[in-house]
Specification:
The protein has two helices and 34 strands. Strands 1-2-3-4 form a four-stranded antiparallel beta sheet, with no helix packed on it. A four-stranded antiparallel beta sheet has the order 5-6-7-8, with no helix packed on it. It has a four-stranded antiparallel beta sheet with strand order 9-10-11-12, with no helix packed on it. The longest helix is centred in the first third of the chain and has 13 residues. The two termini are 36 Å apart. The N terminus is likely disordered.
Amino acid sequence: MAQKGKSKTSVLVITLLLLLLGGGFYAYHHTSQINDGISPNNEGTIKSSTENDSIVKLTPEFVEAMNKYDEVYDFSNGLAKVKRNGKSGFINTKGEEVIPCVYDYIESFADGLALIAQDNKWGYINMKGEEVIPCIYDLAHSFTEGLAVVFKNDKGGFINNKGEEIIPCKYDCVLSFTEGLAGFNIKDKWGFMNAKGEEVIPCVYDDAWQFSEGLAPVVIDNKWGFINAKGEEVIPHQYDEVRNFSEGFASVCKGVKWGFINAKGEEVIPCKYDVVDDFKGGLGIVSMNDKWWFIDAEGKDVFPSKYENVDNFSEGLANVKINGKWGYINNKGEMVIPCQYDAANPFSEGVAVVIIGEKWKYIDKEGK
């Protein structure tokens, strides 16, 4: 949910947690629980096999190769993180280990570099597995818009993909760049800078988050509202919690109930739900009384069924939970892969990661 901590220590802890959760503003309650900081990333087209290998094919050779790994994760741009004996590396769509499992932690490639951790220090490797930015940082994030957040001696700044410190490590906390701006914290107040490190929105906010669709959530007097890139208040500070805009909607909370507003601040879907999730592909996710379902942009229920848990649609399918097990429905609400998994992720590049017992594996859209 929305960040509450204001001290430097709490901000750093929150930053680390966000990194390990994949950089999100909050941790979704409904997620299918297969997550290790790896999420699809469209920055920098990466091909580890041939240009035609955008969809994973579960050949007998691929399936056999997966048996040597303790954990496998989602494919992104032709690569997937795998873990063996507590160490992480990458495989390509043929199941070939193209970057060996030698890292304590690893994230998806962005701008041609992947964030790694070794012995509690952070750095970056290139597509050849070469450590091009050494593991010297106390904390770091993946690259966005050509810059990456790094921390040294409890202070944050930004480096470029050559490892050059473009914006000095002098801030109590910094957020990754989005839409040309990055939030930063000094003496418990938040503002925004441009890619030159110039303060363009002054440090007057008690809390803040990244820009999305032209607006950023900020806090004044314990209430969240939204500002534009000029620092002008567009949506008044009246909410107890908010999330970023996605497909023209932002989820907002009044008291303990959630709904959605549009970019004008109009409450287009009432704050009546216990939990909600962002709109993706024209559908939002809502929950009441421990049941989850999908709504459209008018707030109408899309399918008659309600589930113990759901995730967003991806590649035409959504993972849903019934009687403690996960399966998949199509965009008509029909169950196409039975609920038989202990955990399941959305489909990515033709396959999805599922868990049965302690076994991690990939399945295709036929459930094979």
